[in-house]
Amino acid sequence: MSNVIAVNGRATVIVPAADSIAVYTQGQAQVSRTLGYPNYPDQTTLIGTVTNGQTVFGTFASGATIVVEAVGALPVYYEVGVSPVVQQGRLSTAVQGAPTDIADGASMVATAASLLSGIVTATPTTGRNIALPTGANMDLASEFLIGDSIDWSLITLAAFALTITNAASGNTLVGLGATGATSGSAARFRTRKTAADTFVTYRLA
User: Fold this and answer.
1) The whole model's pTM is what?
2) Which of 6, 17, 42, 88 could form a disulfide with 63 if both were Cys (CB 3.0 to 4.6 A apart)?
3) Does the structure show a pLDDT above 60 at 91?
4) Hey, how many other C-beta atoms are within 10 angstroms of the C-beta on 45?
């Protein structure tokens, strides 16, 4: 679940090194960065304004202290992670980022970012297995709470099946993992957090 800032509220967010912050609102938000200097007061500088949409700030190589302010008439939502996407607060619509294509090969692994993109594709030259991302990597990718989940699709772009398999650790498949063996065949999954660094991925369709 995304973090929410009430109207006229503000939040100071510590973004870890190598992470980004996604800010979404149907109103307006101001996003600033606070920098500290030895023997000098901290300086807070505006780095962007978000209006009726989502903006991702980062990546912050060394981490960052970010201040998010809800300056419009509607609340603001934010997520922190490697590839953060705000899902909450979008009414009946959703944001679809660019699908993630996994290169064909004997050892294929989906990343957390690929699942978060919502659509995963591959063009296999034979039937291939694709391992789920580990639970630890899923936890690093966004601020999942226990019970939070994301739905995503896998599409084969060749006349060979793609089969989702268990992660090396912390992400277990429930149900069948294979697409059909026809180009364009798809499978739908839901990945749900059940504990720290632990996820279960369910076959939906």
Assistant:
1) 0.63
2) 17
3) no
4) 9
